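Notes from hallway chat w/ T.B., transcribed later so I don't forget. T.B. wanted the structure written out for a chain they're using in a teaching module, and asked if we could keep both sequence and structure tokens in one place. Agreed to drop them here.
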Amino acid sequence: MKSLLPSFLAIIFLSALSANAQPQPSVPKGPPMPPGQVIEDDQQFEGESDEPNVERERSREMREHRKPKQMQREGFRQQIKQRENELITWLEENDPNKAKELKALKETDLRAYARRMMFEMRNYRGIMEAQESNPALAEVLKKDMALKQQRNQLLEQIKVTKDEAKKQQLTAQLKEVLEQRFDLIVEKKQLRYEDLRKRLAELQKMVNESQAELETIKDKKDQQVEKHLEELLNSTERIDWN
């Protein structure tokens, strides 16, 4: 099921692109009306009955039934389109070459662009979110992504290389990449741990403030009860003269 999800999302994304790319059909104009002639909306033609048309009513009910699903699909397409725009904008600032590459692909192969865009959205989503809340973590994620790409390239080269000496050289490079990735993984966990500690400290501060407020209220019980009792007993009835 998980393997089908990227394909399904790509299809939805492609439909959103196609819908935005299609021009709106023009409405044909009929011949001009003679001067002084007025179209009556309730004009009835010969043989037409005032009784409700069953087929027309059934068609209307079906359209009404489909509206929620259509609105849901439209909302999903708009959400994907928004994410596409956000990613392109982010790439233009952080990786202009990739942004240019994606734009060129969109012009030449819309279907391939949809699949590629869904892939890139998954890749960059964590980095984009981290850049807002934890820039240091975002930099680590960028480096890790580059190392993963390098790892995949080395693996492909090792698979197709027949020369044993070359294969050993590539394997040594792959080992270096894995060592660098390990260090980044540790750094990534450390940054997330520090972020968690920071959030925990903020929560503890809120707990302490709430506890102090609670103790203050408890200490002033008698004073507050007497004050409210006096307000109730001495309150005068207000008459609305308006």
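Follow-up for T.B.: The chain has two domains: 1-20+66-133, 136-234. Might be a good example for the class.
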